[in-house]
Amino acid sequence: MSNKFLKVLLLVIIIYNSVSAQQHILQTLDTISTNEAKLEFLQKQVDKNWYTNPKVIGQYAKLTDSIAKVINTPYAKATAKNIWGMYKYVNQNYDSAIQDYLKAVKLLEAIHYDVRLSMVYNNLAACYKIRKDYKNTEKYYLKALKYAKKANHERSVAMIHNNLALIYQEMKMYEKADQYSNLALKYYKSKKDSVSISINYLNNGNSKILNRQYDKAIYNYQNAMSYIKENTFPLIHAVSHTGIGIALTKQQKYKQALPHLTKGIEIAKRIKHFEQLMESYKALADYDASVGNYKNAYQLALNSQKLKDSFFTVQQDKNLADALMKFESEKKDQKLKILHFEKEKSEIKKRWYFYLSFLGLFTAIVVAWFLYKNNKNRKLLKIKNTQLTKALDDYQMLLKETHHRVKNSLQLISSLLYLQSESIKDKKAAKSVKEGQMRVKSVALIHQKLYKKDCLTGIEVSDYINDLVLSIFQSHQIDADRIELEMDLDKMTLDIDTIIPIGIIINELVVNTIKHAFDDKVKQPKLFISFKKKANQLILKVMDNGKGFDLKKISQNTFGIKLIKSLIRKLKATFEVSNINGTTNTITINEFVLK
After folding, report:
1. Inter-axis angle of helices 3-31 and 57-71, to 10 degrees?
2. pLDDT tens across 477-493, in order?
3. Tens of pLDDT along 70-97?
4. How many Å apart are CA 257 and CA 250, to the nearest integer?
5. What is the distance between the alpha carbons of residues 317 and 274, in angstroms, rounded to a whole number?
6. Model confidence band, residue 32 (pLDDT cutoffs 50, 70, 90)
């Protein structure tokens, strides 16, 4: 019998056993009376097969989804999302798994199902652990621990303690790792769970190796083997012997190290655990290199490579088996569909001629009616389009005229305020009136631009700010030789309700800079204005290289300050002032409308 035939025969047996197991699950599911009990049964099957037979998890996820649609409760939906997440996790689709877990969490938090919340948060943390995102891994493990404690579920608490210990080992936070590992170990010992105790000691041994605490590592590995016999759980003994060999090699106790290293290889070979055998070979190669036996070290490296190639071959065979199983399953479903189709075909044939004749008559009536309605609607639509076009033109003209009149009115008010300021003898009052004139002028400039542009509901920002600042400079008789002006403005169009308060704020800040920022000591005065869109925010900066000011001496009760604060509240913005190397005013706007 050829090796090729044996391989094919083995694949057929694997497929047959897998299909038989799934049929057994479906038969068991049929005997369960309530949908809620079926969900619990499927969740247990998923927990049992998560790592040993991950491909069947997809079938369980589909079944759970179907039951959840019937029950339509938050718990049922959360269970389905959790199982889908587990299926995607074992298939390395971590981003999609995270999304399913987060949806499950949201549903479970609404109904306060603490035990299940703990489990889902634990699964969520595992996804982030794979991605080496330690911050989120720790965050979600701690949330899982919180809900496990709240539900008083001791086994879950111990499991999460153990998971936290492992993640802290990876983060090289060894004290925390020991703390959580000891908490888990205390529970396992109280329950006399020898397997979990051994695994806990094994993990501690690995942690001590990483932390270079070799005596403590040996102690933990020996404890791991003392709690469980080799024939019960040989992998633990293989890992422990290899770990002890590594620790003794690091301590240069070569004679003591060699028996443990060879024992680890012997057990890994016997149980055919390829991954551990590769680790054991690597440890022995390191040993040979340490004692100067480079020829043996090289040979072990070759053996490790052959083993790796063999492992990949087995993995390919497994993938082939999965593909054949999927093919057989789809083939079976197709046959069932064909049988069902044949059964319905005879019934459909009887009604076919009746439906066909009725459909022909009905189609003729419908087509005639639609032709009539379409002709009528086309005429009405043409009339409506003409009316709408005229109404839109009238509206545009009216809106443009409105902006023109508002602009004229505001310019008139500005002129009146200027004339009034010229006739006021009180300098302080005259100054206030002139400042009011500039504010009105900044708003009038907006309506002037709206009147001149095709867009009547928005202002192009860079063009507006440039004209506004130049207008302020002209009003204060400032030229480029006196104060250097530099602007960095993004091109964007904002609605009127957003640009008006921004324009007034810029007016206040620029006028304030012109009046107070520069004295004779400031050489080459400079004003810089920046307006940028970053993410979902607008950032306005007005900066100068002037003399600065004492923030504590600035009155918060002046009209200008009050006006800026009021406008900032309207824009849902923040206002920051820095007094280093001049003055920097930074306004971050969170609420705005782009056109």
Report:
1. 20
2. 887 678 899 999 999 98
3. 888 888 888 888 888 888 888 888 999 9
4. 9
5. 15
6. confident
Distances in whole angstroms, Cα of residue 226 to Cα of each of 202, 236, 519: 11, 10, 84
Length of the chain: 595
Q: By C-alpha distance, which of 409, 495, 401 is closest to 455?
A: 495
Question: Would you state the torsion angle of the CA atoms of residues 57, 63, 67, 72, taken in this order, to the nearest 10 degrees?
Answer: 60
- Identify which of 141, 105, 110 has the alpha carbon closest to the alpha carbon of residue 126: 141
The distance in angstroms from the start CA to the end CA of the chain is: 77
Q: Is 45 exposed, middle or buried (0-12, 13-18, 19+ CB in 10 A)?
A: buried
The C-alpha atoms of residue 444 and residue 447 are separated, in whole angstroms, by 5
Burial of 95 from C-beta contacts in 10 A (0-12 / 13-18 / 19+): exposed
Q: How far is 546 from 188, CA to CA, in rounded Å?
A: 70
What residue type is 515 in one-letter code? K
Sign of CA dihedral 167, 169, 173, 177: positive
Closest by Cα among 112, 78, 23 to 86: 78
Which one is predicted more confidently, 361 or 233?
233
The Cβ-side half-sphere exposure at 359, using a 13 Å CA radius, reads 6
pTM of the model: 0.45
Amino acid at 334: Q
Cα 113 to Cα 119: distance, rounded to the nearest angstrom: 10
Beta-carbon contacts of 119 under 8 Å, excluding residues fewer than 6 positions away, are: 82, 144, 156
In this structure, the strands spanning 484-489 and 493-495 are unpaired
Nearest to 585 by CA among 505, 520, 525: 505
Q: Which amino acid is at 407?
A: K
Determine the Cα–Cα distance for residues 228 and 142; give it in Å rounded to an integer: 30
**pLDDT (average), residues 520-534:** 90
Where does 424-491 have alpha helices with state H? 427-452, 461-475
Q: What percent of the chain has pLDDT over 90?
A: 18
Q: Which two tokens stand for residue 230?
A: 């080799």
CB 271 within 8 A of CB 235: yes
Q: What distance in Å separates the CA atoms of residue 262 and residue 275, rounded to the nearest whole number?
A: 16
- Residue labelled with tokens 């998971």: 163
Q: Is the pLDDT of residue 336 over 80?
A: no
- Quick one: which of 576, 515, 505 has its CA closest to 546? 515
317, pLDDT greater than 50: no
For residues 125 and 141, is the Cβ–Cβ distance under 8 A?
Answer: yes
Segment holding 583, helix H or strand E = strand 583-589
Of 96, 85, 148, 90, nearest to 117 by C-alpha is 148
Are the C-beta atoms of residues 164 and 156 closer than 8 Å to each other?
no
CA atoms within 13 A on the CB side of 375: 5
